[in-house]
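ok new one. same drill as before - structure tokens go in, u give me an amino acid for every spot. 254 of them this time. try not to just spam alanines like last time pls lmao
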């Protein structure tokens, strides 16, 4: 999604600025079999139509972008904050079908995005351990204790203890992370207090082998977004990942 748009305060119209705004358009004439080049500048035409209005160039605050549905669904609604450097606005972008152009609504308000849940991939970890730790197999009680200790620490740390992966998911309200070096070392210390030395070595090796993006030791973060309209702070929409929005996990065993 482009990160700039032109906003007319007087009539509420918006135009999204893209790298293709000044790119020429080409028209084919089947009778002459000739292709002619047509000049095009959508942003200039927009400003020309609104030349006597109050026009602002707004810049998207990318950290506030979220959608009500998967990115692959054409009828999704997107919200994000945008600013001209002085004032802040909420931009709502929506359409009902792929044949329709996007509609934009700009208004004053706030977007609050907070963590809804923090989880580990317990079932995937169990399967990966059964596949990887085979000589000898790790006792089931040890596997469950590993999961308990890991989940307890993961849910206790703040965002500063996590490394958020930059890769985007199909839902902007779902992100993947891993423990940072400091918290990871704290986890390994807990292993020493709860497992025999050889099991500690194997569990640490397992963790370190499965913590890159797409691996089973990744941490699943789900966020909830609340859109409020000023001046009365009316809640317009509360959005969180639904249970139907299955997370595709790249490296987990089937």
């Amino acid at each position: 999604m482009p990160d700039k748009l032109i906003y007319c305060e007087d009539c509420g119209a918006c135009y999204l600025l893209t790298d293709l705004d000044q790119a020429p358009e080409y028209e084919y004439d089947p009778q002459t079999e000739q292709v002619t080049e047509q000049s095009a500048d959508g942003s200039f035409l927009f400003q020309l139509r609104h030349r006597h209005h109050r026009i602002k160039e707004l810049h998207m605050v990318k950290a506030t972008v979220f959608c009500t549905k998967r990115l692959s669904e054409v009828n999704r609604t997107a919200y994000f904050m945008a600013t001209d450097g002085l004032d802040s606005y909420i931009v709502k972008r929506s359409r009902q079908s792929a044949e329709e152009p996007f509609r934009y609504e700009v208004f004053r308000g706030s977007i609050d995005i907070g963590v809804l849940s923090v989880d580990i991939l317990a079932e995937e970890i169990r399967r990966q351990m059964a596949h990887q730790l085979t000589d000898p197999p790790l006792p089931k009680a040890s596997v469950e204790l590993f999961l308990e200790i890991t989940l307890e620490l993961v849910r206790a740390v703040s965002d500063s203890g996590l490394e958020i992966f930059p890769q985007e998911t199909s839902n902007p309200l779902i992100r993947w992370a891993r423990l940072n070096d400091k918290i990871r070392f704290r986890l390994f210390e807990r292993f020493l207090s709860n497992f025999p030395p050889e099991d500690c070595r194997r569990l640490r090796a397992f963790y370190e082998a499965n913590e890159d993006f797409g691996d089973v030791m990744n941490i699943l973060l789900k966020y909830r977004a609340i859109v409020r309209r000023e001046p009365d702070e009316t809640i317009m929409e509360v959005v969180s990942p639904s249970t139907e929005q299955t997370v595709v996990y790249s490296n987990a065993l089937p």
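Confidence is low (pLDDT under 50) at residues 243-250. and btw The two ends are 33 Å apart (CA to CA).
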